[in-house]
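hiii, so i know i said id send this last week but things got crazy w the move. better late than never?? heres the sequnce for the chain we talked about at the cafe, plus the structure i predicted for it. fair warning i was half asleep when i ran it
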Amino acid sequence: MFNLKAEIYLKIIFLFSLIALISAYFIEHVLGHQPCNLCLIQRIPYGFSIILISILFLMKKNEKFFILLIILTFIFSFAISLYHFGIEQGFFKESAVCGVENFFENITKEELLNKLSKKTISCKDVTFRVFGLSLTTINIVVSLLFIITLGKFFINYEKNK
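okay and structure toks below
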C-alpha cells in the first residue's frame, strides 16, 4: 500500500528538486553565472531524486526501498556540499575535481591551448548568492532537511502505514 504521508513528502522533494535544477540552469544560461565542477556535481542528486521518485510513483511498490535510495542520494548531496563549502571558506584546498574538464576527451594542441587560455571557474569563488548565502550553503541545509525528514519517516515506516 502506498503511504499518503510519504507521497506528500516525495511530491515536495520532487517539486523542490525540479525547481532547483531549473533555477541552476537559469542562473547559468540566462544570468550568465558559470558553475564550477563541484556545482555541476551538486546537481546530480536532484536529477537522480526526480528519477527515483518518478519510478516510485509509476511502480507504486517498494516504497521503503526507494525512500532509502533517496536518503542515500541526499547524504551524497550533503557530503559534496559540505566539502564544497569547506573549499569556499578556505578550510580545504581545491582538489583536482575543481580544475578537470573531461578525462576522456582526445584534444589537439590547439584545443588544449584554447582551453588553457580560458578563465577556469574556481570552486572557492562564489559568483551567485541568495540572501547572502551561496547556493552550496543552501544545498547543505536542504539536503540535511530532506535526510532528517525522510530518515524519520523511514525509521518509523511501519508505524506510518
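btw The chain has seven helices and two strands. thought thatd interest u
miss u guys!!
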